[in-house]
Specification:
Number of strands: 8
Helix content: 40-55%
Oligomer: single chain
Structural class: alpha/beta
Distance between the termini: 43 Å
Length: about 300
């Protein structure tokens, strides 16, 4: 193991996982398609850095999001690589069918709690988005898939104040009852505070026995530092992250807040004696590659 790697402490009582979402998040805010070959190069660099759990894309209409073009070919290439946990984000039954046809075994569902954001991102009301996700969850579980359900704007968003933990429970309980035990709170708009985050985790862990609760954090450096500590003290089971914090939802008004950087999350967990098996030098190389890919695409678009 490299001297730059996260060190292991076998006496650590806590395990907190990391899910890399660079191939979806970092590219979805770009105004152009990223070639499949470049996405695969970046994936290989992340694998060499020790990443094993990925959300690599969303099965959406490419006329709305050309960055996710050729996703079936991407999954076909990834499916040949052993030892990886690969997730795809799906928003409707057409996307779920595409996931099944691709042989994907892990699907992430997601709905927004902000009416404005839900209309812009999903084309439907909050209630309709939730009902659709429940129906998809039931079908995905019946097909033997592993399912994750996420709440976007879980700590507030456009025209939405911070929902109380009890309200989060009302949205998540039907999924937990179905057998979906991987549940995520996404701070899509970067509104979470350490107190609200810790309160939500404590409450949901108590009310949803057996649930694995993950966090998808956005925000500035100081905010992320404080929220990482709250995630740890609140017992979060995993964190989503991206290289250099690149990404954000393109359907939020204004400039979306940055993601949690993968290296920062790994170093934080290393400070808590948690081994996530990542090599920091390898992450730096992957980040350099990502920056090159994005820079090259900007140049080409400028022409």
């Amino acid at each position: 193991m490299s001297s730059n790697a996260v060190l292991t402490n076998i006496d650590s009582p806590r395990v907190m996982g990391l899910e890399d979402q660079t191939l979806r998040e970092a590219f979805q805010i770009q105004p152009h398609e990223i070639p499949l070959t470049e996405r695969l190069r970046l994936l290989e660099a992340l694998i060499q850095a020790g990443v094993r759990r990925f959300q690599v894309g969303s099965l959406v209409r490419t006329d709305r999001m050309p960055q996710m073009s050729h996703i079936e070919q991407l999954f076909a290439s990834i499916n040949q690589l052993p030892g990886l946990e690969i997730w795809s984000l799906v928003f409707n039954f057409r996307g779920l069918k595409r996931a099944l046809d691709c042989g994907i075994t892990h699907v992430a569902l997601s709905a927004s709690l902000s009416h404005i954001h839900s209309r812009r991102n999903l084309g439907c009301s909050v209630e309709h988005g939730m009902a659709r996700c429940r129906d998809m969850a039931a079908e995905a579980l019946a097909q033997g898939l592993t399912v994750r359900m996420g709440l976007q704007c879980a700590f507030g968003g456009p025209m939405l104040g911070p929902p109380e933990p009890g309200r989060l429970l009302q949205w998540l309980m039907p999924f937990h009852s179905l057998g979906v035990h991987r549940l995520a709170l996404a701070d899509t708009a970067g509104r979470a505070t350490p107190q609200r985050l810790a309160e939500a985790l404590d409450y949901l862990h108590e009310e949803l026995p057996g649930a694995k609760l993950g966090l998808h954090l956005h925000g500035g450096q100081n905010q992320l530092a404080a929220n990482l500590e709250a995630a740890w003290s609140g017992g979060a089971d995993w964190l989503d992250a991206t290289l250099m914090g690149r990404g954000g939802c393109p359907f939020l008004p204004g400039q979306p807040p940055a993601n949690l950087p993968l290296a920062r999350a790994a170093k934080f967990l290393a400070s808590k004696s948690v081994d996530v098996g990542l090599d920091f030098a390898g992450l730096d190389r992957a980040a350099t590659l990502l920056a090159t890919i994005l820079s090259n695409r900007r140049v080409r678009v400028g022409h």
